[in-house]
């Protein structure tokens, strides 16, 4: 979720035990959990307030669509999946290594 591997997580746990001590670590973890829960509640509340403020016209609006990666995926790349795009068929083989392509004076 946060891009932290097992080794990095173990280092963070060891540092937390060293910094806060084994007796204070449960209290700090509980405070961090409460802060994270409050932050999540505030974010959900702000999201709900925004959706309520937009009115019924935007009832199907998803705030996550404002993420640029998701916006591009939804509006540009999903259309490509619907198209039946096929690779072009080559009648002629590719040139062997070192062979020069034919010269067309009318094309230049």
Would you summarize the structure shown here?
With 108 residues, the chain is an all-alpha fold.
> What do the pLDDT scores average to?
81
The ordered string of helix (H) and strand (E) elements is: HH
Major β-sheet annotation: none
Beta percentage is: under 5%
**What is Rg?**
28 Å
Number of strands: 0
Low-confidence parts lasting 5 or more residues at pLDDT below 50?
A: none
Give the end-to-end Cα distance, rounded to a whole number of Å: 55 Å
Number of helices: 2
Envelope shape: flat
Domain count: the total is 1
Can you put this structure into words, describing what you see?
With 108 residues, the protein is mainly alpha-helical. It has one domain (6-81). Helix content is 59%, strand content 0%. It has helices spanning 6-54, 68-82. The longest helix is centred in the N-terminal third of the chain and has 49 residues, at 6-54. The radius of gyration is 28 Å and the shape is flat. The chain starts with 5 loop residues before the first helix and ends in a 26-residue tail after the last helix. The model has no long low-confidence stretch (mean pLDDT 81).
Which SSEs are present, and which pair or pack?
Blueprint: H1 6-54, H2 68-82
Key attributes of the depicted protein:
transmembrane helix; single chain; transport; 2 helices; 108 residues; TatA/B/E; mainly alpha; transmembrane; Translocase
């Amino acid at each position: 979720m946060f891009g932290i591997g097992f080794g990095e997580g173990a280092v963070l746990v060891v540092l937390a035990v060293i910094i806060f001590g084994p007796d204070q670590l449960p209290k700090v973890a509980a405070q961090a959990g409460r802060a994270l829960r409050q932050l999540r509640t505030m974010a959900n509340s702000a999201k709900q307030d925004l959706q309520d403020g937009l009115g019924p016209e935007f009832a199907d609006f998803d705030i996550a669509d404002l993420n640029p990666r998701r916006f591009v995926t939804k509006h540009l790349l999903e259309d490509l999946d619907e198209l039946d795009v096929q690779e072009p068929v080559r009648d002629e083989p590719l040139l062997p290594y070192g062979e020069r392509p034919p010269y067309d004076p009318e094309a230049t």
